[in-house]
């Protein structure tokens, strides 16, 4: 099997993983904003996410000669390594729950802020756990100041969301007053200020950041957010962050057996074997939950059926692509983490920098917001960039023997 051994190779894996993991959320957000049901999208995503793990396992996991201490992927499937397999599958379960939660959090909180908060929580909790699991191979005097910067980014992310929510509320109230004034001048019954979806949009394609744009977006999207509490979105986001913070330490335990759960003579799970079991459990949980959500949707999403999902080809290609990007991104993250330490590999949590770029360019997030929101947004991103740079600088080197 192929093993990443150099620090440079590990960092290259992290950089490619960063680009892939920062892009797939934008694709799923795009589909939700176009009205595709999240249950349909996530079922498609889950299929190719597992496919990516299979491709990695049967290529990198089978390259080169197999040995007693470093068996190839297929050979390792028949070994007595179930304690490590269970850790890998536990990691897949919490990752699946986290990804499923963020699909709804993106609608309530926005792509940029959701990614910053969840990634920062992942680093604050997960990186600390990985540091001790990795026998402290990362430089603590560099690593933990970086973790502190991520914690500050979480606070700034929450402030950005609250400020932007207030901005949007002011825009919608202004539109509602304007609509009522127009109704009164034409002797028509005034519209309720709460009936924002029936507001008269002045253009067929409103400009990003305007009240008309917000109303048109609400009409089109599959997850309705008007009238929902700010706490709903933040609660989902924090839950997702906690799930994300646990999957990397679980994978670390699966590949390095720090708790000595394997019998003597049984080799540790390779990254590729662990990633296979990790992805299988992620797939199973996603399929089960989303099939249930077809018939019993959450957050007032529309009901649907398995037949409707099979026949829904609108945007399916983008959902399938998102699954591949996420799968290969996770695989590269784990390959880099096995070489340089999983605490340093959490530097891929810089993915919100990529997601924020897509959020602003594709979805017009924070257009026409207040100066306060812009100041908080810039502060959040600067703090996040500093944290990522510090985390990468803490990289160590794992002894592969």
UniProtKB/TrEMBL annotation:
InterPro entries: UPS_plant, Ureide_permease. The keyword Chloroplast does not apply. It comes from the Eukaryota. Keywords: ATP-binding, Membrane, Nucleotide-binding, Transmembrane, Transmembrane helix, Transport. Belongs to the plant ureide permease (TC 2.A.7.19) family. The chain crosses the membrane at residues 6-30, 42-61, 81-98, 105-130, 142-161, 229-251, 271-295, 316-336, 342-362, 374-393. It is found in: Membrane. GO terms for cellular component: membrane. Its main location: membrane. This is Ureide permease 1-like isoform X1. Residues 173-196 are annotated as: Disordered. GO terms for molecular function: allantoin:proton symporter activity; ATP binding; uracil:monoatomic cation symporter activity. Pfam families: Ureide_permease (PF07168). It is a multi-pass membrane protein.
């Amino acid at each position: 099997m192929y093993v990443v051994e150099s620090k440079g190779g590990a960092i290259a894996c992290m950089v490619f993983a960063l680009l892939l993991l920062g892009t797939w959320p934008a694709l799923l957000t795009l589909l939700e904003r176009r009205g595709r049901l999240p249950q349909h999208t996530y079922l498609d995503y889950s299929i190719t996410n597992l496919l990516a793990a299979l491709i990695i396992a049967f290529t990198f996991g089978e390259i080169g000669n197999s040995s007693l201490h470093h068996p190839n992927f297929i050979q390792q499937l028949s070994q007595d390594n179930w304690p490590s397999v269970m850790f890998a599958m536990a990691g897949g379960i919490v990752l699946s729950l986290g990804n499923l939660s963020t699909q709804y959090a993106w609608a309530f909180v926005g792509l940029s802020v959701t990614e910053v908060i969840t990634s920062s929580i992942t680093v604050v909790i997960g990186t600390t756990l990985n540091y001790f699991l990795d026998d402290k191979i990362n430089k603590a005097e560099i690593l933990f100041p970086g973790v502190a910067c991520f914690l500050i980014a979480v606070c700034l992310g929450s402030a950005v969301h609250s400020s932007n929510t207030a901005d949007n509320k002011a825009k919608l109230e202004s539109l509602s007053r304007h609509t009522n004034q127009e109704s009164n001048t034409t002797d028509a019954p005034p519209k309720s200020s709460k009936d924002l979806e029936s507001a008269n949009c002045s253009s067929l394609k409103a400009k990003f950041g305007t009240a008309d744009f917000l109303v048109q977006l609400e009409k089109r999207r599959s997850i309705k957010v008007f009238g929902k509490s700010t706490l709903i979105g933040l609660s989902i986001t924090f839950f997702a962050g906690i799930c994300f913070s646990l999957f990397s330490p679980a994978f670390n335990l699966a590949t390095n057996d720090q708790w000595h759960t394997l019998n003597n003579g049984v080799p540790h799970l390779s990254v590729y074997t662990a990633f296979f079991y990790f992805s299988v459990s992620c797939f199973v949980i996603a399929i089960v939950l989303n099939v249930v959500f077809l018939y019993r949707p959450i957050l007032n999403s529309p009901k649907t059926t398995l037949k409707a999902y099979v026949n829904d080809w609108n945007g399916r290609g983008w959902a399938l692509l998102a699954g591949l990007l996420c799968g290969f991104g996770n695989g590269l993250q784990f390959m880099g983490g096995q070489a340089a330490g999983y605490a340093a590999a959490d530097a891929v949590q810089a993915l919100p920098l990529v997601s924020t770029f897509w959020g602003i360019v594709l979805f017009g997030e924070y257009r026409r917001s207040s100066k306060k929101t812009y100041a908080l947004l810039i502060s959040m991103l600067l703090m996040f960039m500093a944290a990522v740079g510090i985390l990468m600088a803490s990289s160590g080197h794992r002894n592969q023997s």
